[in-house]
Design brief:
Mean pLDDT of chain B: 87
Order of helices and strands of chain B: HHHHHEEEHHHHEHHHH
Number of helices of chain A: 11
Helix content of chain B: over 70%
Distance between the termini of chain B: 26 Å
Distance between the termini of chain A: 49 Å
Radius of gyration of chain B: 19 Å
Structural class of chain A: mainly alpha
Order of helices and strands of chain A: HHHHEEHHHHHHH
Helix content of chain A: over 70%
Number of strands of chain A: 2
Radius of gyration of chain A: 19 Å
Largest interface: A-B, 53 and 49 residues
Oligomer: heterodimer
Structural class of chain B: mainly alpha
Largest sheet of chain A: 2 strands, antiparallel
Low-confidence stretches of chain B: none
Strand content of chain B: under 5%
Shape of chain B: globular
Mean pLDDT of chain A: 85
Chain lengths: ~300, ~300
Amino acid sequence: MSWPLLIEQTFNGVQFGLVLFLLAVGVTLVFGVMNTVNLAHGSLLMAGGYLFAEAQLRTGSWLLAVLLGLAGAGIIGYLVEAVVVRRLYARSHLEQVLATFGLLLCFNETVVWIWGREPVPVQLPALLRGHIELMPGVPYPSYRLAVSVIALCVAVALWFLIARTRIGMLIRAGAERRDLVEALGVNIGFLYAVVFSLGAVLAGLSGILLGPLLTMQPGMGDPLLILALAVVIVGGAGSIGGTFVAALALGIADTFARTLLPLALGGGAGRSLAAMAVYLLMALTLVFKPTGISGRAGGTE
Amino acid sequence: MNRPESVAVIIVAAVGITFLIGDPYLSRIVTRVCIFAMAAVAVDLLISQCGVASFGHAAFFAAGGYTAGILALNGITNALLVWGAAAGVGMLAGIVLGSLCLRTRGLYFLMITLAFGQMTYLGLQGLRQFGGDDGFRLPRGVALPLIGEVSPSGTLLASAIVLIAILGLSAYLRRARIGALVRAGRDHARRLASLGVDARPYNLVMFAISSGVTALAGALNVNLVQYVSPEMSTWFVSGNLLIMVIFGGIGSLSGPVFGAAALIGLEEALAGATERWPFFLGMAIVMRVLLWDGLKRMARFLKT
């Protein structure tokens, strides 16, 4: 493997990992704080992406479309929590999986209904259409670089929110000892709504950022959601820091495995093994840490 | 309705009526119900007895399907041999995966089975010699000794007989010592351990039986559609099996059978009525979970 390719793939891996982190934040918080699994989280990614594409088509402004997409994902997330997910917190995990699976079917079909099955085109912002020379002779799409920068900034902002604000303190406390937080008189219902909507906005952002890089089609978020579940398991439920590290590691590993293994093993088998690598890591984590990395939520009797 | 005899009577009646009507399309649907009911019974066995819900049983379903397909490619068409091999492969896979997955409980069990399911799906996609993403068509159907090639109505008959046998097996396992032991382990792991009983081998046997039955269902499904592809192992298939169990109500012997009939019937009815049927199916699932009182019963069975 040549140096330019190595550098390019590293940047791609970091970019993918950062976007994966944005998606996984919502999953890990819902998992860690509410002890709930939400399979419809990928639908929020899809909702953000499609609303962004539609807004872009109508307004012609990238920035405005991003804001509208984020707002839309947040509102849909809030409604989903208020109407369905709120009723699932006290239910068994099996019921949570099934109800959110049902939601996922509804969302995918709604998108088919409105936008059809054909992929929807998304425009890059005019400013980011070119390439940047990372090093002499190593051009890199400036949009991908911008995605990394935006995602990194959001990650820092998120760290500030979680580590330095009152609501962040409550979220951390909720992930640690939900029952105690509730006993101390915190409005736990409000806290849950905030956590879920925050996750929805971040999922929407990942959909918006990935829109031009993936094909925008119904169900686009579902494979990514399964990947995000792997990130959450490897990183530890409820842990933002762990999720960040795991997302970067899995993003880079996945990108490299997809480039290197087909080179080493040839087409089909290599590609499959590469895609399996992430789930192998997820399974191994659970084999050696049967109650999760953090050992708290989810596996409790 | 927890007596295998009464469920068997209903199945025999349903299959008999299907034969009387003689519509090939209806007969296909009823065969599918029987096949998926088998897999749902297997999934329910783990949920109601061991207290763990698998989100990866599609892997065993596909393992059985690929076993049947690969045997057919190699000219082996003896139905008993094919079905036996599929169940055997499923049980072996179940022993290997079960010993890893059963270390976890609750949500983490769902996650680790999901991980193995995804690995199976991606692995099957990589099998270029067996069609990769597209899978392959079976060159010929299976045949029974003395009877000859199994026709579509023969598949219906075989599926119904196997389903009834599996219901009998499920009823036996619930009554037997192993059933009592895994239920005790589910409800009071620590108390059981303090009595000097290690529930793990019993759970593993249950898991292996469950995966063997699911693989057998997969092989029958391949005999029905004469086609194998990695799509058999997507997490949507695992999800569908769980939905069937929930639809029918967890823990009763007949529940998964009615659940499979309800889900497949609902799919067919909605697909006939509207192009947007996945939307209404999703709605029905959400409603079933949120509104059905009978599900409260389930909380007792699945304390996770």
